[in-house]
């Protein structure tokens, strides 16, 4: 056993609008000898996710905001380098929520050993095989269930959740899967790699114009990562008994003002629609079902994924901001090892 | 058998904004001898309902708009005066959808015989014991189910659906039922007669100010008859996993412009809320369950109701407009007999 220095990124200001590098600081923490029942983990990848923006605000919410002056928490995957807990031995690959740091030393109960699939990089356990994939799965099975033959629309479709959701929708029986993304390059990726039937660039014309063109028969399910104009356009074309999973509203996360909701809420009544919001914490009971089905799909080559990897803990804040700006395709992760 | 003159009210213009008497005309139709399998019914009461405003517009919808130059359809209850159909004999009390007229003569299949509860006026079968009561029941059992101990908020609470919904919410186990209405008189009726725990006049201060005062612990279920500011205020205070039944948006029915939606849609995600719209036609499978439970509640004296009765077919249009303006307490009906 030995002492080690852990580099950690902390939130020091609550951002107004877009976060800046000045809202964060990097500190060094010295870990001494490992107490009994603890493990020391060297992270390989850490996750930057849209939901983190919300937790930077000091608003009443189901999960408390990030603490000022404390290390940013969030998903990470690493390898155990020292252990005084027999249930989590050295060399285990573990997932945890200790966030933006290179080394973590905590009680063994805070870590979950990954059942590795041979040949899969560890970053995938933060993305398609992890919380990101589970988010897409929960949305399309419980929140807005996809039925055989459905037309499904997914916004932010080239993002981490969206690129997985499109594929899951097809695997669940959807006939037609339509995606929106913020560049022509991403739009091409959607149909070429992620199995989308059709896709459009929401920056090139109003969503309200483009979506009906791609969905002449309407849509049955909408998986919303964006909110705003996308939700409004979806409410225009949702078929009777249509379902909406509200997963994210990245269009509003950095807005300093509240924004008006859709001007066509009356369609919810007329069409008998269901809109349901969700955060993953309420649906972890689906995790084992997801792990089983996703492993099978993955091993059968029925799921592909992209990721955007940024190197170096010191680039984490920039990676987070790039992800919020949509610079990523697929899951954005930071390689710390 | 004899000839008879039927007076019928027809829609002749599609109103823009508030309907006017000029949008309607009254015609006389002469019915001759009753064909085989038909019945002739003299109406006793006809129903005027908020949903009718929507059908006056020529918009794509799940049910076609009212036809111009045709008699207004809608709920009515009357008595069979002649019959050539053994299954619907003379003197039967029947419900039907032939709407705004004093006499109707049609095939027997278009009529449903009422199982009368002794001492109950026939108008109740259009309201608390009929479609109105069923609407409240569907909303609080299927769309936004009430659980034991819930706090329930109901807007337009003194209206036909709202005054029944408050009582059903209590019977389903709600701890606290809060209602909004548009006058101090109605507010008093809510707590004194309809079992509401608390009520407020939405015209005396913003709903967003008043609702949190009446719901310091938040709300679990919102039954929305109004839309607009009421829905926005409800989204502010809905507890985790809260449920919203979107039944009506009377605040917008006569608006010539679209109105922006709630500015706090993000709460749907944060709080894991469900918003579901409905129209009764999709939920008629609950009718027999409702009839059973409601008859029991009613016979036990656990349900009370108000109605506003307007006399004379010739006052139907005015009654409809008064109802849209909120002049009624409880169900608004027109006595035609």
UniProtKB/TrEMBL annotation, chains A, B:
<dbReference type="InterPro" id="IPR045010">
    <property type="entry name" value="MDR_fam"/>
</dbReference>
<dbReference type="Pfam" id="PF00107">
    <property type="entry name" value="ADH_zinc_N"/>
</dbReference>
<dbReference type="Pfam" id="PF16884">
    <property type="entry name" value="ADH_N_2"/>
</dbReference>
<feature type="domain" description="Enoyl reductase (ER)">
    <location>
        <begin position="19"/>
        <end position="334"/>
    </location>
</feature>
<dbReference type="InterPro" id="IPR041694">
    <property type="entry name" value="ADH_N_2"/>
</dbReference>
<dbReference type="InterPro" id="IPR011032">
    <property type="entry name" value="GroES-like_sf"/>
</dbReference>
<protein>
    <submittedName>
        <fullName>NADP-dependent oxidoreductase</fullName>
    </submittedName>
</protein>
<dbReference type="InterPro" id="IPR020843">
    <property type="entry name" value="ER"/>
</dbReference>
<keyword id="KW-0560">Oxidoreductase</keyword>
<dbReference type="InterPro" id="IPR013149">
    <property type="entry name" value="ADH-like_C"/>
</dbReference>
<dbReference type="GO" id="GO:0016628">
    <property type="term" value="F:oxidoreductase activity, acting on the CH-CH group of donors, NAD or NADP as acceptor"/>
</dbReference>
<dbReference type="InterPro" id="IPR036291">
    <property type="entry name" value="NAD(P)-bd_dom_sf"/>
</dbReference>
């Amino acid at each position: 056993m030995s002492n080690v220095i852990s580099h950690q990124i902390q939130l020091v200001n609550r951002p107004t609008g877009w976060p800046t590098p000045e809202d964060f600081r990097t500190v060094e923490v010295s870990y001494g000898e490992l107490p009994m029942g603890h493990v020391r983990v060297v992270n390989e990848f850490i996750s930057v996710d849209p939901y983190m923006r919300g937790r930077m605000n000091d608003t009443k919410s189901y999960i408390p905001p990030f603490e000022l002056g404390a290390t940013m928490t969030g998903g990470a995957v690493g390898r155990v380098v020292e252990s005084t807990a027999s249930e989590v031995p050295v060399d285990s690959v573990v997932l945890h929520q200790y966030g933006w740091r290179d080394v973590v030393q905590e009680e063994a109960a805070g870590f979950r050993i990954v059942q590795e699939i041979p040949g899969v990089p560890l970053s995938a356990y933060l993305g398609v095989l992890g919380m990101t994939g589970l988010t897409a799965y929960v949305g399309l099975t419980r929140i807005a269930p996809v039925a055989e033959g459905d037309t499904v629309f997914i916004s932010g479709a080239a993002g981490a959740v969206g690129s997985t959701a499109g594929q899951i929708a097809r695997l669940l029986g959807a006939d037609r899967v339509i995606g929106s993304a913020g560049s022509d390059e991403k739009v091409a990726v959607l149909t070429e790699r992620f199995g989308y039937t059709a896709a459009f660039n929401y920056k090139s014309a109003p969503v309200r114009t483009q979506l009906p063109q791609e969905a002449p028969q309407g849509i049955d399910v909408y998986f919303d990562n964006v909110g705003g104009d996308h939700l409004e356009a979806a409410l225009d074309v949702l078929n009777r008994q249509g379902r909406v999973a509200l997963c994210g509203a990245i269009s509003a996360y950095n807005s300093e003002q509240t924004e008006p909701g859709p001007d066509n809420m009356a369609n919810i009544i007329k069409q008998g629609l269901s809109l349901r919001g969700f955060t993953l914490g309420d649906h972890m009971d689906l995790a084992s079902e997801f792990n089983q089905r996703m492993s099978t799909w993955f091993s059968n080559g029925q799921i592909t994924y992209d990721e955007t990897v940024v190197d170096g803990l010191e680039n984490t804040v920039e990676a987070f901001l790039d992800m919020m700006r949509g610079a990523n395709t697929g899951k954005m992760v930071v390689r710390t090892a």
